[in-house]
Structure prediction request, 620 residues.
Amino acid sequence: MTPLKKDIYGLHAGFLESVRRFPTRPALEVEGQVLTYAELRSHAAGIAAVLAAGVRPGAPLLAGVLANRSLPVYAGLLGTLMAGFGIVPLNPGFPPQRTRQMIDQAELEVLILDAKGESQLGEILADIGRSLQIVLPYTNDVEALRARWPQHRFVPASELVEPVGWEPVSVAPDSLAYLFFTSGSTGVPKGVGVLHRNTLRFVAMSVERYAVCGVSETDRFSQFYDITFDSSMFDLYVCWAFGGCLCSPSHVEWVNPNKYIIEKELTVIDIVPSTGHALNRTNGWRPGRFPRLRLCRFGGEALSADLAATLSAAAPNAIVENVYGPTECTVDAAYYRWKPDSSASECLHGIVPIGDAGPKVTLMIVDQGLEAVPIGEEGELLISGEQVTPGYWRNPERTAQAFVNIPHREGRYYRTGDLVRKLGVDRPIVFLGRLDHQIKIAGVRIELGEVEKALRDAAETDLAVALGWPLTSSGAAGIVGFIADPGANVDAIRGRLKHVLPSVMVPREIHLLASFPLNNNGKIDRKALLESLSD
Amino acid sequence: MDTEKRLLDIVDEALTLGGRAAGFDLETPLMGALPELDSMAVIGLINLMEERFGFVVGEDEVDASTFETVGSLLAYVTDKLRQGH
Prediction:
């Protein structure tokens, strides 16, 4: 292991500090193998050195990681950061056409793949104008790829060797650590750039919060979130800042996630409530089942009091928290700690509060004129502080709409679009709903406008509606579509949608109407459509 | 409708295969071979099987081998239905 010769600034600093402090402790368990901090660093450094050596003046310092639950994911993410590049996390489970949109928007010239990512290259590289560097950390078998795509540079595992004396790159606080793409209402995925200083503030806040609960290098963290989801930053970078072991289940292990938690002796888990409901099927979260769990975080969507209470009883030695924060504000902005004896009285309509602002985070609840509302009244939640990101990728107009200045107040405020209410002076904030047509399914943010755009294109019609249905305590379980064309071929439309949308966004059912119901304003009556579903 | 056809319909719907499952046979590999059957999708598939067949999938009854092929999944479902849930 190469000792650190200088202080490194960046999201990778916590990992590197743990490499120095705990080189032989386990850092990662994935694909049936356990890697120590020194071993994982070595894998990452091999990738980083190749990336750093290939920097082309004028090219974006970004690398896409198209991989899932494999060593190339984690070595690729760390290697990207250690090279001074920002990460564009991609998912081989998404339609290649969508992944290509993200690659083009980010103007990527570097991709890091695993075998699943490689299987999509045919569609991803089709008609791409620029030359890419494609890193394949899991194989040396690149001859066929080189022959098929001579314009791109394929780097096999054998070339990913850290040169003697190489050191990770230190980055500027305002450089990009991540570019996350979320569903966009205009039909194109929307990029949110997160800076190193945003991420470092988030990691510092988390370490401070959980170190006092006893979390340390002996802890074993779950890695259940996909890397395209910003919540995965808690799993990876908070775990590695503590020096803990990150446990990434394979698809096979995920068949029995409760068993995985027990058998891998996890002590820290972070999940969306929808996953929690699934894990609690058939009494999976019976009282006392998880005595080793020390910290359980729910995030990404509304949490029901029943689920929080059930997990609290199943994990009697754990702190159970509801964490809240949009991608635009770097993972967490507010916390609510579940108190088995008294929290029920703070829940509204059976939903757990989102709590109060984290340290150095400022929350404001405002009316439509962006004036603060009195305590107890509902309004839109605004967030300010060091974790607020600069805005949307190459979209100043949209950024200006969502990130605003408030007269007589310092800093920029992000408009969450979430309707909330603070229950009282010393009482928490509760989430009431969305102000727009965004919904969440299993924690994944979906702009219904994006689904509607895809529906219109697929059905070759100019009017389509998408609604979250059936409704659940945490949002919706799926999407239902409506088209005003009684003769449309639903199977053909769904087939086309599958090529452009991730499966979670493809409507489960498409209803064909002769015409849409209209409300008094002459707008499509979405409420009436929803009611027609419950009949 | 026979159980195999019902199961394939469920697989198709849970994984949003757009009709592809109709071409599956008993030997068709599922887990590890079908990109749509990712970690979250397993849970969705179990939930839909429970809903449509009206039985409860016990946590200890299924493991990765259950989802290996269409045939292995069908064997599990047939067994459950024979037991009268």
